[in-house]
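Input chain follows. Return structure tokens only.
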Amino acid sequence: MKTSLTLLTPIILTLSTNAYALKPAPWVGNNLKGEMCTGEKGYGPYDYIKDREKVHLVEEYHFTPQVEALVKGQSGSIEGDLNYTLRAFPNHHKALLSIIRFKLNILKGLRKEKLKTEPECYLNRAIEYSPDDPAPFSLYAYYLSKVGEKERARNLYDRATQIDAENMKIKYSYALFLFDNNEKEKAYELAQEIYEKEKDAPSGLRDQLKKAGIWDK
């Protein structure tokens, strides 16, 4: 039996509308070796903040607690599941942090794997895809600080705090970075704001400032 084109038209229009509604998420920039970032396309892409109703569809099969903790993969390898998650949600905050931790563990000799796609490429893509989300900027800054790219890290922390001046978690991370880089007075200034506005903020920053003799000056 032939299907009427009239009956198919609404379906075609719906599919076309959904396809065109998706914002592209190209692979951009270079890795830390200067090589061009490349990668595959995947499901989506969707925004981790704006498309929350779709997040569970990926997390249930690819970003389980064990994948997040880098214990074992869910549908395959850990890297494969992280890659699937980040291709679908370029700015998935937790998955970005996990791929960063994965790489840092490799650099520390705690893992023997070699990543096919470096964290900086996922982070470049996340920033390109969601420039109004401060988290990828902050996570990139954290990663760069751990691999010795201090000035680039500072610039990204500054950008993250410009996007969301009220995000105390990002400012906390920035303050720790400043403290570790011997900018204790600036870290103290941020800490004053953090602990005033975020009563449940971790005590680690304040403890370090107290140990350095700055908190009670």
